[in-house]
Amino acid sequence: MYPDDGPRSGEYIPGGRGANAAWQTRVQFIRVPAIRAIGFGTSLAIAISYVHNESIGWAIVHGLLSWLFVIYAALFY
After folding, report:
1. Membrane spanning segments where (predicted)?
2. How many domains does one find in the chain?
3. Per the domain annotation, does 7 fall within a domain?
4. pTM for the predicted model, two decimal places
């Protein structure tokens, strides 16, 4: 990939130690709790509500209801 195939700045090399260790970076994954993420049901409820009512306020309320509103919309819209 590179002409000299040596380690690059910020590149992670498994098991790297010694003189080039200062140039290596370890990747760390951060776990985000599911409660902080907007789920598919919430997104779907907001989209259905906004298309039907054309109101951001109602879209937020229906987004909080999430799957309950999606099921209601599927049955009665």
Report:
1. 34-51, 57-76
2. 1
3. no
4. 0.53
